[in-house]
Amino acid sequence: MPRRPRPRPTAADAALDRLFGALADPTRRRLLARLAVGPAKVTDLASPFAMSLPAVSKHLRVLERAGLVRRTVEGRVHRLALRGRRLEAVEVWLDPFRSYWEETLTSLGRDLERRPPRPRTARR
Amino acid sequence: MPRRPRPRPTAADAALDRLFGALADPTRRRLLARLAVGPAKVTDLASPFAMSLPAVSKHLRVLERAGLVRRTVEGRVHRLALRGRRLEAVEVWLDPFRSYWEETLTSLGRDLERRPPRPRTARR
DNA sequence: CCAATAGTAAACCAAATAGTTTAATATTGT
DNA sequence: ACAATATTAAACTATTTGGTTTACTATTGG
């Protein structure tokens, strides 16, 4: 029985999948931290890591597909630069949850924090 | 040739891996959104999804191990509640990058945004 | 021209992920 | 006691991931 392939996620979902997926790896987070200092070429990015160059190359491709990194090829050297603005998407996703940890809240907000609302009890 | 197993990440890294990894799936993000409304039991959480109950059960375990969800067993029903504060860890990780997209910046900050610093050219 | 350099491509592998189905466990209502 | 309910466990599968090595391509400096 050929099982149907699981449905492709929506574009928005896929973008968030790639974004969070890219961040879910320590090597890639270190690469981002390094790139926050400034652009760099692949070999320089790879040198601190105890793994092969192709491995780092792949990580960079993942970051690129997530939109977190921009690549400009100058001759044979690929210069990678952080696209920090892409991280705003994380912030945006996070936003509706912000009330759960922010301290500067109305008493209503604080109540929500301390004990999350019971599901529709007094509701209607 | 038995290749050595790749080294376990540090505790801090593993925590972030689990956290971002948990967020890197549309089903789990939907579950979190649902839980933001209020706690719920497994069957109720599962009902909107076109997948089996054990599949959702596994997703919940992933969210739990990431610290994003708290489980309280009352008899045979497991009540899941969002642990929204855990998301603050995302915010914390994000913080050093904030200057890359925030508009309210000094001119220095805006420069950094427009074109990221070239790597140590005039440095030293 | 040629050797060295910078990087990707390809083929491979082990482990992890996301799902399935079937079975098991524990609790509840009658 | 028993049937129904709520949920996890286990065993299986396909796909993805993160790494390797080896081969390839393109650019550069002498």
Notes on the structure:
Chain A starts with 10 loop residues before the first helix and ends in a 10-residue tail after the last helix. In chain A, helix 1 runs antiparallel to helix 4. A three-stranded antiparallel beta sheet of chain A has the order 1-3-2. In chain A, strand 2 and strand 3 form a beta hairpin. Chain A is mainly alpha-helical and 124 residues long. Chains A and B meet through helix 1, helix 2 and helix 5 of A and helix 1, helix 2 and helix 5 of B. The first copy, chain A, binds a DNA duplex (30 and 30 nucleotides) through helix 4.
Quick recap:
The structure is a homodimer of 124-residue chains. Helix content of chain A is 47%, strand content 11%.
Task: Write a concise keyword list for the protein shown above.
homodimer, 124 residues, mainly alpha, Arc Repressor Mutant, subunit A, 3-stranded antiparallel beta sheet, 6 helices, globular, disordered C terminus, DNA-binding
Mean pLDDT across the residues of chain A is 86
- Biggest chain pair interface: A-B, 42 and 42 residues
Main β-sheet of chain A, in a few words?
3 strands, antiparallel
What is the name of the CATH architecture of one domain in chain A?
Orthogonal Bundle
Structural class of chain A: mainly alpha
Quaternary structure annotation? homodimer
| Spatial strand arrangement across the major sheet of chain A | 1-3-2
